[in-house]
Amino acid sequence: MKRILQFILLISSISLFSQNLEKKISDEICTCLGNLENLKDSEKKQQECAQKSFENNYAEIIKKFNDPQNTHTKDIEDYYISIEGLLLNNCKSFLEYRKKEFVREKQESISNCDDIKTGVYYYETLQKKEKSYLTFTKNEVIETRKNNVYSINKIEWTDKCTYKLNLLETNSNYDEAYLKNKSLVFRVIENSPTYFVVQTEYFENGGLNNVKIFKLPFINE
Fold this sequence. Notes:
By secondary structure, the chain is an alpha+beta fold. 35% of the residues lie in helices and 28% in strands.
């Protein structure tokens, strides 16, 4: 991943390219990956395939990045996540490999979540190196991430500890491509004094995912 990000840094000051180019790159990466189950170092293979595709499409990437009509974020991590989103939806070998990270057992929501329906929280991303912040209000959940990436979501509580989010506004390439016009349902399956855990399904073929969300007591008191 380090080498991939080093390459993207060369062009990080320019806007994101179109969905068609993302699809092309994800298809090239998928073909390059082959069967990840038979490899000793699958992570290294993914890095090599991604770097090869970026280098092969460098000129087209630059052209798309310079498009003055682009209004989305220039965040590198958000861009790469959008590529992974396509791989999870369209690349069988990548999906099968990533399924190891998903939760197989669906859990029902608990019965007491009154204390978390408004407040400021955060969850960790990128192997716990980064934090994404969530502000829960009566009608919205506002998420802010590194490099001023943000999304505003309408929240609807469908029962005491289950809520549904619908995207209202974002500058994230990933959110715009994969979460627009799609409802995400979150079940609160654990609630402690310092954190709560939600279970959701981000990708149609990706299984369930448990997310630990930390409370900020000094802000929420």
